[in-house]
């Protein structure tokens, strides 16, 4: 019996349907992907340290100063310019380094991202989609990550969908849409 709470009244139990850590970090990666302007494929990444703190988030997009209204999004052209989600997440880090961290990503990383992941000291990759596995870039990334001892785990989230209802704590009228430039 916990001495701090040894009253005889019924104690309300915590809720049980909260999301687990892995679903949470993967959901952050998926949410970040929603910021991507790539019309064909949106990728997000979330880096987590050994204390389960998020230390970096990123998505695929044009470099700073290179307008995503002007630079090309066509397949075959964009690859010259687009910064990948993993690279952005690492560069956006709010800690001194990402040594020993885990990166949660929508898509298994390409060869360029694998090199950056390895060299930054990230020790684990958790991904959902492996849809590009047959491409040479992804065969190379898988090989490099394996040889570098980076653990790669495909993850099937425990929940199929996570709904975010911005109105859930509003009793009556829905939120007024505030005009903001994005
Ligand atoms: O590791 C990766 C691989 C790809 N992306 C981004 C880059 C592009 O915007 C899209 C699609 O890539 P393709 O060159 O058409 O394969 O996904 C990424 O962020 N991270
Ligand atoms: Zn990449």
TrEMBL record:
Q: Does the keyword Zinc apply?
A: yes
Keywords, A to Z, come to: Hydrolase, Metal-binding, Nucleotide biosynthesis, Zinc
Query: Hydrolase among the record's keywords?
Result: yes
Q: Which domain of life is it from?
A: Eukaryota
Give the cofactors, semicolon-separated: Zn(2+)
Question: InterPro entries recorded for this chain?
Answer: APOBEC/CMP_deaminase_Zn-bd, CMP_dCMP_dom, Cytidine_deaminase-like, dCMP_deaminase-rel, Deoxycytidylate_deaminase_dom
Q: Which residues form the CMP/dCMP-type deaminase domain?
A: 20-152
Q: What class of enzyme is it?
A: hydrolase
Record-listed E.C. numbers = 3.5.4.12
User: Record's family?
Assistant: Belongs to the cytidine and deoxycytidylate deaminase family.
Question: What is the protein's given name?
Answer: dCMP deaminase
């Amino acid at each position: 019996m916990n001495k701090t709470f040894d009253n005889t009244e019924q104690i309300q139990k915590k809720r049980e349907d909260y999301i687990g850590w892995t679903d949470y970090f993967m959901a952050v990666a998926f949410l970040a992907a929603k910021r991507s302007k790539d019309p064909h494929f949106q990728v997000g990444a979330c880096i987590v340290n050994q204390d389960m703190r998020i230390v970096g988030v990123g998505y695929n997009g044009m470099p700073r100063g290179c307008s995503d209204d002007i630079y090309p999004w066509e397949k075959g052209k964009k690859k010259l310019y687009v910064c990948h989600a993993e690279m952005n997440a690492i560069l956006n880090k709010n800690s001194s380094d990402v040594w020993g961290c885990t990166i949660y990503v929508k898509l298994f990383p390409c060869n360029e991202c694998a090199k950056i992941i390895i060299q930054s000291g990230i020790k684990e990759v958790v991904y959902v989609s492996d849809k590009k596995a047959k491409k040479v870039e992804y065969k190379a990334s898988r090989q490099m990550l394996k040889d570098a001892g980076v653990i790669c785990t495909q993850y099937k989230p425990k929940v199929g969908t996570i709904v975010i209802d911005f109105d859930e704590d509003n009793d009556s009228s829905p939120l007024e849409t505030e005009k903001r430039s994005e």
